[in-house]
Specification:
The chain is α/β, with parallel strands linked by helices. It folds into two domains: about 140 residues, Rossmann fold (3-Layer(aba) Sandwich); about 70 residues. Helices cover about 45% and strands about 15% of the residues. The chain contains eight helices and eight strands; from the N terminus they run E-E-H-H-H-E-H-E-H-E-H-E-H-E-E-H.
């Protein structure tokens, strides 16, 4: 089956993010503990989605109402969005990104974006670098009930791109990207910035984003 769509991650794949993730996590954890989450149930060493999952489980076990938990989730979302948007103007493009995306588009491929950042941040970044017009579909953290690594994030985006898992490739730089692709049955290209990790030898890897052009010719 021929390739129809290319899905990109954002932070670390298309841009060098300046999001202060540690600062974000400290704010989130502090707020959640004040909101009633057991202090040792969450920590800044967890990923954000793990923090939220543990926090919701903890609040439910304590009998907090669904309405209260929803308010807590909404406030955490607001905190995350605020930190992300504050950093948007400091982000820089990964070398070769504009040329690569234009080339893929000129070859008739649909382009999608799947990110754990919020939509306003993603669109602001893409507009700033003149890339938004090349994307056929965007699914950000706040567009879905369960962001990646949950495979439903990828499945929902594929529907918007009118593509099957066999007709698409996902490119990302993080283990959560690889896990999302694996669980969705989606082909994955790992954008590896250096050789400091023992990556799974079975996973296709690239070190320059422009290498995508050669890889997709073989798909």
């Amino acid at each position: 089956m021929s390739l129809k769509a290319i899905i990109f991650d954002l932070d670390g794949t298309l841009i060098k993010s300046k999001i202060p993730f540690r600062k974000m996590k400290i704010r989130i954890v502090k707020y959640l503990r004040e909101a009633g989450v057991t202090p040792n149930a969450i920590s800044e060493d967890m990923m954000n989605f793990e923090i939220m999952r543990k926090a919701v489980e903890d609040l439910k076990s304590k009998g907090f109402s669904e309405e209260y938990i929803e308010k807590v989730i909404n406030e955490v979302t607001r905190l995350m969005n605020k930190v992300e948007l504050e950093s948007a103007d400091d982000a820089t493009l990964i070398p070769g990104v504009p040329e690569t995306i234009r080339a893929l588009k000129s070859n008739g491929l649909k382009i999608g974006l799947m990110t754990r950042s919020c939509r306003k941040y993603a669109e602001k970044i893409l507009k700033r670098f003149g890339l938004l017009r090349y994307f056929d579909a965007i699914l950000a953290r706040d567009d879905v009930a369960y962001p990646k690594p949950n495979p439903s994030h990828a499945i929902e985006l594929l529907k918007l791109l009118n593509s099957s898992v066999e007709e698409a490739v996902f490119i990302g730089d993080h283990w959560s990207d690889a896990e999302c692709a694996r669980r969705a049955g989606l082909r994955f290209i790992w954008f590896r910035h250096d050789n400091s990790h023992n990556w799974d030898p079975r996973v296709l890897k690239i070190s320059n984003i422009s290498d995508v052009l050669e890889v997709v010719k073989k798909c």
